[in-house]
TrEMBL record, chains C, D:
<comment type="similarity">
    <text>Belongs to the TGF-beta family. GDNF subfamily.</text>
</comment>
<feature type="domain" description="TGF-beta family profile">
    <location>
        <begin position="1"/>
        <end position="110"/>
    </location>
</feature>
<comment type="subunit">
    <text>Homodimer; disulfide-linked. Interacts with GFRA3 coreceptor and RET: forms a 2:2:2 ternary complex composed of ARTN ligand, GFRA3 and RET receptor.</text>
</comment>
<protein>
    <recommendedName>
        <fullName>Artemin</fullName>
    </recommendedName>
</protein>
<comment type="function">
    <text>Growth factor that supports the survival of sensory and sympathetic peripheral neurons in culture and also supports the survival of dopaminergic neurons of the ventral mid-brain. Acts by binding to its coreceptor, GFRA3, leading to autophosphorylation and activation of the RET receptor. Strong attractant of gut hematopoietic cells thus promoting the formation Peyer's patch-like structures, a major component of the gut-associated lymphoid tissue.</text>
</comment>
Amino acid sequence: MDSMSTGTCINAKTLCLEDFTCSTSFLFLETCFPFTVSATQKPENQEDCLKAAQQLQNNSLSTCRCLWRMKNQDNCLAIYWTIHSPYGFGHYDLGGSPYKEIVINKPWKFNHLDLLESGSVSQSSPDLCLKSTTLCTLNDKCNKLRLAYGEVCSVARCQPLKCQQELRVFFEQVADHYAQALLFCPCDDGDDACGARRRNTFAPSCASPTRDPHNCLMLWNMCLQDLLCRSRLADFQMHCIHMDPLVTCVGTQLHRCLKAYMGLIGTVMTPNYISNLSTEVAVGCSCRGSGNQLEECKHIQDSFSRNPCLTKAIKTQMQFYHQRLSKSSPPAISQE
Amino acid sequence: LYFSRDTYSEKLYIDEPVGTPLLYVHALQDARGEVPHFRLGQHLYSTYRSQPHKNDWFQINEDTGLLYLNQSLDQRALEKLSARNGGFPLLTIYLQVFLSPKPLRESDCHWPSCAKVMLSVINTTMPACSSLKPREFCFLETGLSFRIRENKPPGTFHQFRLLPVQHLCPNISISYQLLGEEALPFYSDKDTMEVNMRHSLDREEKEKYELIAKCTVWEGLREEVVMVPFPVTVYDEDDSPPNFPNGINTANAVVEYKRKEGTVLAVLQVFDADVVPSSVDIPRKYIHTMLTSDPLVNEFFRVEHSPNETSYNSNGSRVRAMMHDYKLVLNRSLPITESHSFQLGVLVNDTDYQGPGGVLHLYFNVTILPVSIRFPNISYSFSVNRNAHRYAQIGKVCIENCKEFHGVNITYKLQSLSVNCTALGIITTPESTTGNLFVNDTSMLQRPECTGMKYLVIASDRQSKKQSRTTSTISVEGNFFPEEEGCPISCAVNKRRSECEECGGLGTLMGTCQWRQGDGKGISKNYSTCTPSLKTCPDGNCDAVESRDLHICPQDCIRGDIIGGHERGEWRGIKAGYGVCNCFPEKKKCFCEPDDDKEPLCDEVCR
Amino acid sequence: GPRRAKLDCHLRTELVRVHELGLGHDSDELIRFQYCSGACPKVRSNHDITLAHLLRTGRLRLPTQPGRGSVRVLSHPCCRPTAYKAVSFMDVSNTWRTVDSLSAAACGCLG
Amino acid sequence: GPRRAKLDCHLRTELVRVHELGLGHDSDELIRFQYCSGACPKVRSNHDITLAHLLRTGRLRLPTQPGRGSVRVLSHPCCRPTAYKAVSFMDVSNTWRTVDSLSAAACGCLG
């Protein structure tokens, strides 16, 4: 078992299976939640599932997590949700995030930025979104991963599922600051071309066509059926909504919220800017036909379009990149 | 019984004394006489629900719903709880309050019979009263929102006082009220500071009350006012029977030329003032059945139900409702001989609605008219040039109303009435039920003795074998001139006007290809190309004749590679091209590039 | 030696703006256009030796192409791509487009 | 059509005396020397169209090769033999000689 998965749920499960009482509870729990391929039937009595879960409370399984870029992430997430599903606070509160806290602010630098600034690669329009696209093209890995999703998302060859998958690969493998430069590049007020590039750079017309938008509750249910989407949604809920009930939006929490926001891109709950000229974001769904669950539906919409911390995080990130990408930018600084 | 909120919240400082009241939960009755008993979940939770902790600190009064501190929460206790929070600082403690007498499973907490309590933990002791700002005496930042079921008995659903802060600072004088409450179905009691309903509510009259709560705090002579939103959502009950908007429950449906499966013949609407069942549950709850035992009707007709949320105006505010469309649709293509009229009844049942009138009847008066295959009483005459190449499209024949027909399988045939000269063929275009006459044998045209042709044109419906005939006379014009030697068989191969107009190709009417000069603006639909006939190619449609042979119009029919700046047609062909598009049908390949791109000069390779 | 290797047939990269490609696409995006260039060592086949000789001595008269200089004859293998790859970009209307076989992926001396 | 195909890559024949071959053989016998030449328009790819455009517009600056002008770049497949055949003749001392792979047997657009 590779080093990445020590301390993750994969490791915790291996230890558990070596212990008789632990493995009986865990294997029973696996039948409660059809996340693992092997689980077929579902016990009628949910009570036994809760008892089995409670027996594992002091086991390392109930505090294990997964890592963003680990190998066989799906297995790890399946184990996490097998343990955590009994404890939900109702359908619309997913509890904690399966992803382990990550140290974020490693100092980074755009290579070739000097090349761009020296003007040797002629830059006709100073539009910073085009500039961040160029920076990605000049970086081998970013260019390769961007072309990979670009091809399966482009017009006349769009394959929505493959497009979503390649988008996820892009965000999981490219260095964060390149992905964020593309996603949160600042545009001058009224610069429609820049805003249009920013809004289409992740091929929404292919990845999440919103011809007749789903009801948000249906979209939520679809996401919960998918292991990865459920995990990214729980991460977003935890780091962009629950972590700050008094809505203070303080310090590093902003950056972690952006990481969670980016984690949703490429799932059915892919958010995007609402227009070329706005930095407000929303997920593509409507609340028509919600019946008595209009409040829950509106809550899903508001967690993207009326989320003060998310809005502040995006604005802060744009100011940062404005400073980093504009001509007179100081030498590389680690980003707090 | 149901909670008036799905989440209650309050602030929690460290070392607040035992017995400190935290908040009241409120339950409203579904039926008079119901008495609520509140029970607290055994565990309290942090961010990670899988790490519940035994609840030693909080208690609830079973009858009044008052949540209070049973044991003071000190620094050590806080650290113990934080240890189980996955490494995050403990910001929130979650509790669960149950209503129903029989204990629900603890992990299954959701409205209406279980409410979440969110205590925002502040890692300091309670600040002195004097240091608190007026706002902190009045309201919390987490905001208020309430749920009241329509048609249920009125009751108390909120009390304004922030219990902990007013318990520790009793001499603060404070008052609350709802703005404009005189005209509202709610009122606030000055003494108990509770908010009550004057009477039960009707969602179909108003479903959202966007109220404002006003708090006034006096500190000595200074008076401070704080206002916050106080939204109340009225929850729906299926208490309105479905009805016919403007009373129409009958529609006529005539089937004539449009006999294709999927054709919508008529639509009837049913209005329902309720929004439950929601669009997810409607397929299960809103049932419709065709009241017929006639196998023909069941085989050839179906009813499609599509519910859409709508809204109407009710004294100044919008109220959501549902509009159900019932479409009568052809389930299979109807034979042209079929002739029949009947009334089809459809029963619509809102199974969720318990009262009378939950079942409605729709009626479709259906008339199926037979349709005849008949040529207009004219005989067709066309002309063809002796130099026309094979597949030149000479003209179209069409039975009466052919443009109207859908789902009817008409085919056209030719029978030659002239002995020494028969050069034409005919192909049917299914969508527009027309017959395309084209040159099929050019050798005949080149014989001097062949000066004209006469044909019998027969249109027949494959299913009913019904037929109609007419005659078509063709005059042969022009003198034959042998073609330029070495010309390609497809006009599309040529890349320049000169090459194009000196050659013929399959599909040419006069023996010479025609050059289309494009607008030369980037990748454009109007690209330059060489075509057998500007009328039919390229027009974005690989028609019945062109699809016979790729050499005729590869621009519209190519499925293979298109090299250079282009946009592919949705199924086939070149939708847009850059500069000149020319094709090599035998290689199934087309090129689009500006004409100035002559072959590169003989670069140094030649030395 | 290495200096010599630089001249041999190999993959080169040029940063080109999409609107410079000459395919009619309009976009300011940069793409990495890769192509093959460099010398192919003469394969001492009898045919090539004879052909080079006949060309050099002018013994071989080449029919000219109308308006396009003399017809091309090669007396050695040519440095050409042996594999291609598609390139994708966003055009000015912010639509993702892909052009097949636009960039060379590998080079070789052919023929 | 056939008239234009003559420009496309195909087999050509030239009657050459053996001593003109440049292989050092001495004989006045005539042999049929076959070689490949012509354009390859139908086999070009997007890569070729773009490369030709970049070359023509001067957008592609080619590094020069010492002593032999700019480095060779081909913006179209090259017309080269795809099969060879031997040629036999009697030299001045009336001995039969055979030169392997002297003449092209078939041509193709490569790369």
